[in-house]
Amino acid sequence: MLSNKVINYFDDKVIWITGASSGIGRALTISLSSIDCDIYISSRSQDKLQETKSLCENQSNIHILDGDLTDKACNQSISDSIKNKSGHLDIAILNAGTCEYVDIDQFDSALFQRLINSNYMSIIYGIEATLPLLKQSNHAHLVGMSSTAAYLGLPRSEAYGASKAAILNLFRALKVSMAPYNIEVSTICPGFVKTELTDKNDFPMPCLISSQQASEEILKGIANKKHEIHFPKRFSYALKAISLLPDFIQFRLLSKMVQKS
Ligand SMILES: NC(=O)c1ccc[n+]([C@@H]2O[C@H](COP(=O)([O-])OP(=O)(O)OC[C@H]3O[C@@H](n4cnc5c(N)ncnc54)[C@H](OP(=O)(O)O)[C@@H]3O)[C@@H](O)[C@H]2O)c1
After folding, report:
1. What lines the ligand 1 site, CB under 6 Å?
2. Among candidates 110, 112, 90, 82, which has minimal Cα distance to 12?
3. What pTM was computed for the model?
4. DSSP string covering 76-117
5. How much is the pLDDT for 249?
6. Domain of residue 109, CATH code
7. pLDDT tens digit sequence for 80-118
8. Would 261 be classed as within a structural domain?
């Protein structure tokens, strides 16, 4: 159930959601489809985007723009399509991304490259392509998907965590540099959310929440113009607290997570 504040914030807006073919992006699209706004949705899989659209309350305001967002030209062509249809963009939710874990016994630079491309460079290309459209809006809001994994150096998460820490740092800087252009900037740092991405995890996930719960937290955070939207609070604050501890205590705690094969 969306609050009036959320409904009013997104009402009549032009919105781009990346990674909308499943998980959190799909849940955001379904929630927003009940509001009178235009929603452009992207990911590589046209079929799954079509499935997302079919689950929406009001399908006439959902526009599918599929493609690989690690490709700069693809982001530009999506931006051109939004410009041709809507003329401007109010809210970009750059959510697409993936996760892979590092095996120290098979340290592989290609894995790091893949995650930097899919998590970080896709956002950079998305901003580059849509910034001119956001500047045309009177209510511009740029939102980037990071993770609570950005707060700490978590074992096996060396590549994923680094890509998400890069995003958190980027959006802190953008918060300041976009202010003269009246562009709001928010970063999302979820804990564990049940999606296709976390279904692959082979370890216990404390405080796991549904993609619907995540979507409610995100939309509330955006409507309240929060810079960092982090949840669930008992998990995100616990990680923040650990990050403030002296290094030797942090390393001792985290070393309990390491299993040598
Ligand atoms: N689930 C969690 O616990 C959690 C926690 C913190 C942060 N996050 C972040 O939240 C975001 C969404 O994750 P999720 O959990 O909802 O996972 P998900 O269900 O696997 O969704 C990932 C989405 O990103 C899209 N995507 C991935 N690579 C892409 C590419 N190169 N080009 C275009 N689209 C691409 C996927 O679509 P296609 O495969 O169709 O392209 C899919 O729509 C990710 O950035 C993830 O890192 C998730």
Report:
1. 19-25, 43-45, 48, 68-70, 95-99, 118-119, 122, 145, 147, 190, 192-193, 195-198
2. 90
3. 0.97
4. HHHHHHHHHHHSS-SEEEE---------GGG--HHHHHHHII
5. 96
6. 3.40.50.720
7. 999 999 999 999 999 999 999 999 999 999 999 999 999
8. no
